[in-house]
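Progress against Task 2.4 (sequence-to-structure conversion) is shown through the following example record, which the project officer requested during the mid-term review.
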Amino acid sequence: MGGRGASSGRSAKGNRYGSQYRTVFKIGNIKFVEARNGKNSESLLETMTRGRVYVRVAGKDLKQIIYFDKKNHRTKTIDLDHQHKGMQDHVHHGYFHTENKKSKKLATHPDTFENRTIDNVRKLWDNYLNNR
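Structure tokens generated for the chain above:
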């Protein structure tokens, strides 16, 4: 749960795995995390848990849903906290947030599966906030 290089134990910036984010709560394979260093935290690009889904939060706000593959690399992110070309919830595909720069889209609308995930994450987060 660090930045780049988390599966190796250290990021490219030398940060130890797990030092960038703290777990708020976990349910199944979904882990809700909050940056320890505010906006200065590295992006979540790798994990040590295959197929993990992280939900990045800030305070009471949901920021991002981040998917990882069987090789522990980020495959896509769903941004929930800002608009992109008129889309509130939008998906960036790939390891890097902007690797599809050549495409004019850069982001897509969530598909049916992603919308179900968004709804599930919002429900889990609301239940967590209401029961703590």
